């Protein structure tokens, strides 16, 4: 016998009308989870490329296969045309021209493709107690103790004396050797473990162990160092002075993996911010004839302040947009004023193990969709872009119309800490900017965790943003 459906009380109806009721993705649409699993496979492939240069090497050929051609200054492109701009092999801009002229606004999305890592010092190689090491200088905000006693891989480029540049990538393939930073055994670590976390490992102790066999020559003083240098010379043609013109770093050698019995999550290095970079990359590829011109940017140097010619404080992206607009003699300031930008960057997911750091009404949760942040910064909203109510409302309309499930969130409790994004560097150009990304567990650790459902929903969010037909009237 079918039971009679109970009528809702007046209070229940009012509650449904007036109050928010967060849901976990997949509660009402199991088909979405299947799509998220497929998306996750593509995303994990993207994550295997761990530096900004490797991301460019991977992404640019795919863009070309999808019809993107190199931007030519002075060309009046038409709707549906796709172009790219490569800045120093570290930034990639992809653009799809819309039906409306660029003076009416460009839909921009920016995500950074650099992640915390261990950069090599300019003179890195040394020998001590019959072992060879590389000295490092950590890049970005890390907990140094997390980087000891884990497998590391080496990445980068070296420009030789003759001007030739060689690529280095060791430790990712199954047959490759790997490397590590050693730690002190617990039996002798009484003093070490009594120190605060930021003092347990000194920056000058973060030396990567790379070899221990000597070069067979009794007349040589540093036999292990010479043996390592000889191996590098035979494989890459590198001499020790070539390190002075090198960009080399160590990254965690972990491969992206499914996490959990249900395979609902991704565990990998560098998801801050490659999870957002891949979402906007795929959304841009899948945008064919948008109403407004779209522009996707891979940024560099975000983890160290966005400085230099490849960081978002540089004018490379603005110069590109000005070059595009110049074909029609559009002033860049008017193009920027009518445009909008998503600063696609991750946020902190509430972790029940550390619940004291989070304010539950205003933080983001794993599995509830991408998180929109009105502002970031720290303390009294210092160093932040604070998006206006109108801009938030415009983005809200885009996401709701596309039936994208999303949430709002701050990084954590006020005055507990803080963090910033490239939104500050973009909005200073009179360009309306909003932060949007996915919640991450263990952010900036060698292994970060995201929800596949969140990752996929972020892609749908950026795709909806790129293809929204209503103009921004702010």
UniProtKB/TrEMBL annotation:
Listed name of the protein: Aspartyl aminopeptidase
Example GO biological process: proteolysis
Domain of life, source organism: Archaea
Family per record: Belongs to the peptidase M18 family.
Cofactor(s) it depends on: Zn(2+)
Native source species: Methanomethylophilus alvi (strain Mx1201)
Gene3D superfamilies per record: Aminopeptidase i, Domain 2 (2.30.250.10), Zn peptidases (3.40.630.10)
GO cellular component: cytoplasm
One MF term in the entry's GO annotations: metallopeptidase activity
Keywords: Aminopeptidase, Hydrolase, Metal-binding, Metalloprotease, Protease, Zinc
């Amino acid at each position: 016998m079918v039971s009679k459906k109970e009528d809702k009380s007046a209070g229940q109806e009012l509650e449904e009308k007036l109050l928010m009721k967060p849901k976990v993705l997949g509660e009402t649409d199991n088909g979405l989870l299947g799509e998220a699993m497929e998306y996750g496979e593509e995303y994990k492939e993207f994550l295997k490329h761990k530096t900004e240069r490797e991301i460019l090497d991977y992404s640019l050929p795919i863009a070309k296969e999808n019809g993107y051609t190199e931007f030519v200054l002075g060309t009046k492109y038409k709707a549906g045309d796709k172009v790219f701009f490569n800045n120093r092999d570290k930034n990639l801009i992809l653009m799809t021209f819309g039906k409306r002229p660029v003076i009416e606004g460009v839909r921009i999305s920016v995500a950074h493709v650099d992640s915390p890592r261990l950069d090599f010092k300019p003179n890195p190689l040394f020998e001590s107690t019959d072992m060879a090491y590389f000295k490092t200088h950590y890049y970005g905000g890390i907990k140094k103790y997390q980087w000891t006693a884990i497998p590391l891989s080496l990445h980068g480029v070296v420009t030789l004396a003759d001007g030739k540049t060689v690529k280095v990538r060791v430790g990712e393939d199954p047959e490759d050797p790997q490397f590590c930073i050693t730690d002190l055994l617990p039996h002798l670590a009484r003093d070490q473990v009594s120190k605060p976390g930021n003092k347990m490992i000194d920056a000058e102790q973060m030396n990567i162990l790379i070899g221990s066999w000597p070069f067979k020559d009794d007349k040589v003083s540093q036999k292990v160092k010479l043996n390592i240098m000889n191996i590098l010379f035979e494989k890459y043609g590198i001499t020790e002075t070539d390190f002075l013109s090198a960009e080399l770093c160590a990254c965690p050698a972990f491969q992206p993996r499914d996490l959990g019995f249900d395979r609902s999550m991704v565990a990998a290095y560098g998801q801050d911010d490659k999870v957002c970079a891949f979402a906007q990359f795929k959304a841009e590829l899948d945008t064919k004839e948008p109403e407004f011109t779209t522009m996707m940017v891979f940024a560099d140097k975000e983890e160290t302040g966005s400085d230099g010619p490849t960081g978002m404080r540089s004018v490379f992206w603005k110069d590109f947009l000005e070059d595009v607009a110049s074909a029609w003699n559009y002033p860049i300031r008017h193009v920027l004023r009518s445009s909008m930008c998503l600063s696609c960057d991750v946020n902190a997911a509430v972790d029940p193990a550390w619940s004291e750091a989070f304010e539950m009404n205003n933080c983001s949760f794993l599995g509830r969709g991408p998180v929109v942040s009105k502002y970031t910064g720290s303390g009294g909203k210092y160093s932040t872009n604070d998006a206006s109510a109108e801009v938030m409302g415009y983005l809200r309309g885009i996401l709701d119309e596309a039936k994208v499930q999303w949430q709002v969130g701050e990084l954590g409790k006020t005055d507990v800490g803080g963090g910033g994004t490239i939104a500050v560097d973009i909005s200073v150009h009179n360009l309306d900017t909003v932060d949007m990304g996915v919640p991450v567990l263990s952010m900036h650790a060698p292994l970060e965790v995201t929800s596949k459902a969140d990752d996929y929903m972020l892609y749908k969010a950026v795709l909806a943003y790129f293809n929204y037909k209503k103009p921004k009237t702010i």
